[in-house]
Design a protein that fits this description.
CATH class of the largest domain: Mainly Alpha
Structural class: mainly alpha
Largest sheet: 2 strands, antiparallel
Distance between the termini: 41 Å
CATH architecture of the largest domain: Up-down Bundle
Shape: flat
Radius of gyration: 23 Å
Number of strands: 2
Length: 215
């Protein structure tokens, strides 16, 4: 199969690149934050022929339906990455909480000496370690080319839940400072939430787990 681009294909490639740089790139962050995509840009893409492009059968890579299977397999591996991301967010929040608890003093002693804070930190550490082991298990199964669909769903579901819970507790431990950007835990709480949404929501992970369990 010849992958060399002809003049027409090179022109299309250049047109797509120019469109992305001039029309899409300038406000991409703002649109991503707002989860919006202007209708006028869709109209321009359609006008330039970038919507609903038909690919000839002879240029198809793989058998019919291969694309969907490949996309699902990519998601499977990606969800381990998101689980690891959630784990990192939770572990970072725990680390900041331990540091703050040792430094912050009330009534003449660090708040780390209060049992209420100690219990929070103990729960956070236990859940972070459990999430770490689930991530390792899913990654190990993938590396060994074993079926890991259920393992990665469990890892993502639990790790993202731990990230959300741990960062909320981190903000609680920091008190009012938890909302101050300089202490970073408020950002981790916002970062944690997205891990329950992208690459398959927590609800989707539960569907996958239950189907595997009941099959």
């Amino acid at each position: 199969m010849d992958f060399e681009l002809n003049e027409e294909q090179l022109a299309i490639k250049e047109a797509a690149s120019d469109f992305a740089k001039t029309e899409l790139l300038p406000k991409v962050i703002d649109r991503d934050i707002k989860s919006e995509f202007p209708k006028e840009l869709i109209a321009k893409m359609a006008e330039m022929g970038f919507m609903g492009i038909m690919v000839p059968k002879e240029n198809r890579i793989g058998e019919e339906g291969f694309g969907f299977k490949f996309a699902m397999e990519t998601l499977n591996g990606g969800r381990i990455g998101i689980a690891a991301q959630a784990l990192g967010i939770a572990a970072g929040a725990l680390e900041l909480s331990v540091k703050y608890a040792k430094e912050r003093k009330t009534f003449g002693k660090p708040i780390s000496e209060y049992q209420a804070i100690q219990f929070k930190l103990a729960d956070m550490d236990t859940e972070v370690e459990a999430a770490r082991l689930l991530c390792y298990k899913a990654a190990l199964k993938k590396d060994k080319s074993e079926s890991y669909v259920k393992s990665r769903a469990i890892a993502k579901l639990y790790s993202s839940k731990v990230a959300m819970k741990t960062t909320i507790e981190a903000v609680q431990i920091h008190g009012g400072y938890g909302y101050v950007r300089e202490y970073h835990v408020e950002r981790r709480m916002r970062d944690a939430k997205i891990t329950q949404i992208y690459e398959g929501t927590s609800e989707i992970q539960k569907i996958i787990i239950s189907r595997k369990l009941l099959s």
